[in-house]
Design goal:
Layout lengths: L10 H14 L6 H17 L15 H17 L3 H13 L7 H15 L12 H8 L7 H13 L16 H20 L10 H35 L5 E2 L2 E2 L3 H31 L8 H11 L18 H20 L6 E2 L7 H15 L19 H11 L2 E5 L11 E4 L3 E3 L2 E3 L4 E3 L7 E2 L3 E5 L19 E9 L15 E7 L3 H6 L3 E4 L4
Parallel strand pairs: 3-5, 11-13
Antiparallel strand pairs: 1-2, 4-10, 5-10, 6-9, 6-13, 7-8, 11-12
């Protein structure tokens, strides 16, 4: 019978172990001074259970970290007039935040550090927050030290398992995901530790080869159909190509961006067809290909993984290869529809694009060209008689015309002038209140649909007193919400480098809570 041992990261266990460690230290401090640090350490360790749902990288903290922090705090209180501020800065930037390489991970850690080490008095009474948990664990000031420690431990033992997610700086949703993840991990360990526990099906190799052959044939047909669709679209647009610089049609940057997306997808499909055809020939009895690329593709498809040569074209991260190939077909259909509309509606789904950031850049280029709408064509870049000073001048205009984002709650959609609408976005770790037009707490493990987002260019000359349409309700804070591309099964890589943009969303939650809970918007895979 296999025996498994795993260090518990449950909050109550971590807090009790940390309290006992603090008692063993030579430099003993009163519980009221130690408890905020113990809670911060416990919350950070407990949040590691949620892995990629809550952070880009795992934190590497241990009891050694806590020992060092306690020793430094004792020295600070003995030598400084304002030790609390110094301890908060050291904890956030050195002991816990020093090893974090991601900006959003560090932002969440700083927010948790402030909540535990420097909570505002008015926030102690707010339920479902780390500050409220700290107030619950804090012993009565009238108690002696031993009695205060005993009361702290008693309160720690009373914490539910698993703890209430909100007091850990989490939303309610990830707990269901965590239980499923732990169940799958335990099942996987059991299967690996005892090969005879689940007998292998007979004829497994033959069945796998037949299934692979069927999938290859189906995928190749789908790619051939997509290739024909894209090629026909490219031929229709070639006659309308105008003066081009840096891959953009200076008269219609947005249309040129769409054309470039179609062209890149067409080239990718051609390469993928060659990869699949090579593997199909091998399954039919042809000798193995000497190409390293073909070998890597074949090995990955046999094991059901996305081949490494394909991964640069999957911005949402690794995913099942057949799922990704179906997404390519859906992307191509949408791109052709966007280009083929006689009167462009300018309503887009971010997941349709390989380079979604370029969509926003093309909008800013469009605004820059609009400022010269009365200029002669001889002044356009790349054309005869163009000015050498034109490009730096336009770059300055790009910087002076920022993008304005606004969630549209109206039932009647109106595409803004010199702008576009983004649809299909989903909100994670919070939900959208359509009546208030703001973020609010969510008890669901599923994402909340976000209404269409209006994106427009606001010229620098526009008055700062002008209110944009659908302005946020007065009195609500604003949270700068990151937007990511979502992978299959709701997986999102929360690295800062993957952020497409930030949406300024009104929120009924405090922005610090949104930061702790990693509230974010995703563009889901195309259905």
């Amino acid at each position: 019978m296999p025996v498994f041992w795993e260090q518990s990261l449950d909050l109550s266990h971590v807090l009790i172990d940390s309290m006992e460690l603090a008692q063993q230290e030579l430099c003993k401090q009163p519980p009221t001074r130690v408890l905020p640090l113990l809670l911060l350490h416990g919350l950070l360790l407990h949040r590691q259970l949620y892995g990629m749902k809550l952070q880009a990288h795992r934190g590497h903290w241990s009891q050694v970290t806590l020992t060092q922090v306690l020793q430094i705090q004792d020295q600070l209180w003995a030598s400084l007039s304002n030790p609390s501020a110094a301890m908060q800065e050291l904890a956030a930037s050195v002991f816990y935040g020093g090893a974090l390489g991601d900006d959003k991970d560090r932002e969440a850690l700083i927010s948790l550090t402030q909540a535990c080490l420097s909570p505002r008095k008015e926030s102690w009474g707010q339920p479902h927050t780390p500050q409220y948990l700290l107030a619950t664990l804090m012993p009565s000031p009238e108690l002696e030290e031993l009695d205060a420690i005993a009361e702290c431990k008693a309160q720690m033992h009373l914490l539910p398992t698993p703890p209430e997610p909100q007091v850990c700086g989490l939303s309610a949703g990830p707990q269901a995901w965590l239980l499923q993840r732990q169940s799958r991990a335990l099942l996987s360990i059991l299967q690996r530790s005892s090969p005879t526990w689940v007998p292998a099906p007979r004829g497994g190799s033959w069945r796998t080869e037949r299934q692979l052959r069927q999938r290859l044939v189906l995928a190749k047909r789908r790619l051939e159909s997509l290739q024909a669709l894209l090629t026909n679209t490219i031929r229709q647009d070639e006659s309308g190509a105008g003066c081009v610089v840096l891959g953009l049609n200076v008269r219609q940057p947005l249309e040129s961006f769409l054309q470039m997306e179609v062209l890149e997808l067409c080239q990718l499909v051609s390469v993928l067809q060659g990869d699949l055809d090579c593997l199909l020939q091998q399954l039919k009895g042809a000798p193995s290909c000497a190409s390293q690329r073909c070998a890597a593709v074949a090995y990955a498809l046999w094991t059901g993984r996305l081949p490494k040569p394909w991964r640069p074209h999957a911005p949402a991260g690794p995913q099942p290869p057949w799922y990704w190939l179906r997404q390519l077909s859906r992307r191509g259909q949408l791109l052709v529809r966007y280009l083929g509309t006689e009167v462009p509606k300018r309503i887009f789904h971010l997941s349709a694009f390989r380079h979604p950031r370029r969509l926003l850049l093309s909008l800013r280029w469009e605004a820059a060209f609009a400022t010269d709408q009365y200029a002669s064509s001889s002044n356009l870049p790349g054309c005869q008689g163009s000015s050498s000073n034109w490009l730096p001048h336009k770059r300055q205009e790009l910087n002076s015309n920022p993008l304005h984002f606004q969630v549209v709650n109206d039932s009647k959609l109106t595409v803004p002038e010199m702008g576009l609408l983004l649809i299909g976005l989903q909100l994670w770790n919070a939900e959208w209140d359509p009546l208030a037009g703001a973020l609010q707490d969510s008890l669901s493990s599923q994402p909340s649909p976000l209404p269409p987002v209006s994106v427009s260019v606001r010229a620098q000359a526009q008055s700062t007193n002008d209110q944009p349409p659908h302005a946020p309700h007065a009195g609500l804070a604003t949270y700068s919400c990151p937007v990511y591309m979502e992978g299959p099964l709701g997986t999102t890589r929360l690295h800062s480098r993957n952020i497409l943009m930030h949406l300024p969303l009104p929120t009924k939650l405090s922005p610090s809570i949104c930061v702790q809970r990693r509230v974010h918007v995703c563009s889901p895979p195309l259905s």
